[in-house]
Amino acid sequence: MLSHTEENHLKAIFHLSKDQNEGVSTNSIAQNLKTKAPSVTDMLKKLCDKNLITYKKYQGALLTDDGRKTALNIIRKHRLWEVFLVEKLEFNWSEVHEVAEQLEHIKSKKLINELDRFLGYPTKDPHGDPIPNPAGFIKHTTKVLLSDLKKGEKGTFVGVKDSSSAFLKFLDKRKISLGSLIEILHIEDFDDSLHVSIGNTNLTISMKSANNIYLKKQ
Amino acid sequence: MLSHTEENHLKAIFHLSKDQNEGVSTNSIAQNLKTKAPSVTDMLKKLCDKNLITYKKYQGALLTDDGRKTALNIIRKHRLWEVFLVEKLEFNWSEVHEVAEQLEHIKSKKLINELDRFLGYPTKDPHGDPIPNPAGFIKHTTKVLLSDLKKGEKGTFVGVKDSSSAFLKFLDKRKISLGSLIEILHIEDFDDSLHVSIGNTNLTISMKSANNIYLKKQ
DNA sequence: AATTATTTTTAGATTAATCTAAAAATTTTG
DNA sequence: CAAAATTTTTAGATTAATCTAAAAATAATT
Ligand SMILES: [Mn+2]
Ligand SMILES: [Mn+2]
Ligand SMILES: [Mn+2]
Ligand SMILES: [Mn+2]
After folding, report:
1. Which of B48, B63, B78 is where one domain is finished?
2. Distance, in angstroms, between B97 CA and closest chain A CA?
3. Long-range pairs for A2-5: beta carbons < 8 A, 24 or more residues apart
4. B90 contact residues in A (CB cutoff 8 A)
5. Domain boundary residue among A20, A36, A63?
6. Which CATH number characterizes residue A172's domain?
7. 3-class SS at B141?
8. Helices B109-118 + B65-87 axis angle, to 10
9. Taking burial as the number of CB atoms within 10 A of a residue's CB, which of A154, B81, B155, B172 is the most buried?
10. Nucleic acid strand C within 7 Å of A26 CB
């Protein structure tokens, strides 16, 4: 039985893993979990002893198959609870993360499987992220950043890269929600800001924001 | 912010409080929480420092107003989650307690108030126990043990004293569920066992079981 | 390649929650 | 009411999670 802290480390390592070969650095984990490097080093040793990661001094951490499966199970719980909060408890998508961080550690196979059924087996969380199945299989869809589109191209808003509460509220204010059709009307030379149409309104989006909006290209 | 352990101690003290004057003993708390007396003594000192209980050496613990309100808030969460598990996630009433013991520690005012609304503001949990309101007010109903009834008397099954999984399954097996009308047909002299009618079937109930069944007298 | 900068680990301390064994206080009993 | 039994507390140790400061290793730069 893993502690909350152990589970949080596994999840952080999963989210920070880009490359299969390159270990996730101690500092990046510390930053992600708002803790300090020595605490992470201790935890990496422990997770290595439990065969959830491979870890050699100064070489960062890599999830084992077992560790990866464990991480995906926690992410599954996190995302299912987020769906529950939005669909059933009328939370805004900007409010769910903090509570899901707590709920993801509840231990009960039956609970999460029944929750999944109750929610109608959702495949995406409120931020557009895929929900792993009970076996830890995750379905990726091809998506592209709004900032990578050219003038005249369009796509459907399917997810956010930055899911901070601040950014989500920013999107709410501009009525940009998952499923919106976005088309690039013009790209400003001076500051790379984008003039886009969303539904039947036009607005300007900064490069920084465009860099956090995922689209499914059409 | 209280730890799980602190919250569990407050809840135990609440459940073990009979008398307003008599402090709850260290050993009874230890037994209730499956821990040892020295651990409890340490925790009592801490809770006293936080003004959640009054505690004088060798005199047991008494909840302060603040402590009582905190305990009732945890109990409110526990019981609302139990309702959720039974009503929405198809748990049996014998399966919910363990999971609710975890869920009751999730910290989010909004979560619990929205859950309450989602469930339709229930007043009782699946075992017939009352759900405190957000202010910590709890509504008691008069009820009597089946074992206290005399021949010919009857009542509605409204709660259990022993809510162990074993007893709840025992009741399931005999199709005795909350709301059943129970009438005492005969009391056996030899072993005090009860012949009762439940709905349209008759059966025999031991004194030990009758001592754990609450009825609303009719 | 040597120096400097950065990252990571080790060393050592702290706080919380737990335990066993022993001492102290209270309660029960003859 | 004194002795015995029970309960409670204290003393001291252990494990987990955390931190700061210092040492060691690695990476980047002249
Ligand atoms: Mn989240
Ligand atoms: Mn999410
Ligand atoms: Mn319960
Ligand atoms: Mn209950």
Report:
1. B63
2. 12
3. A2/A70, A4/A105, A5/A43
4. 114
5. A63
6. 2.30.30.90
7. coil
8. 50
9. B81
10. yes
- Per-residue HEC secondary structure of A61-89 comes to EEECHHHHHHHHHHHHHHHHHHHHHHHCC
Q: Who's near A115: CB < 8 A, 6+ residues apart?
A: A80, A81, A84, B89
pLDDT higher at A4 or B21 = A4
Residue A136 lies in a domain: no
* Residue B66 contacts residue B40 (beta carbons within 8 Å): no
**The pLDDT of residue B161 is above 90:** yes
Tell me which residue range forms the domain holding A173. 144-217
Q: Does B186 reside within a domain?
A: yes
What is the per-residue pLDDT across A158-182, written as a single tens digit (0 to 9) for each? Answer: 999 999 999 999 999 999 999 999 9
B85 and A111: CB-CB below 8 Å?
Answer: yes
Polymer length in residues for chain B: 218
Tokens of A46: 């422990």
- Measured CA A37 to C1' D29 distance, in angstroms: 25
Task: Give the three-state DSSP class for B2.
Answer: coil
Predicted confidence at residue A19, as pLDDT, reads 86
Percent of chain A, pLDDT > 70?
Answer: 100
The residue length of chain A stands at 218
Looking at residue B44, which CATH number applies to its domain?
A: 1.10.10.10
**Which residues on neighbouring strands pair with residue A214, listed in sequence order?**
A145, A159
Distance from C-alpha of B199 to C-alpha of B167, rounded to nearest angstrom: 20
Q: How many separate domains does chain B show?
A: 2
Whether A49 is covered by a domain: the verdict is yes
Q: How far apart are alpha carbons B93 and B87 in whole angstroms?
A: 10
CA distance B109 to chain A (A): 10
Asked, for residue A27, whether it belongs to a domain, the answer is: yes
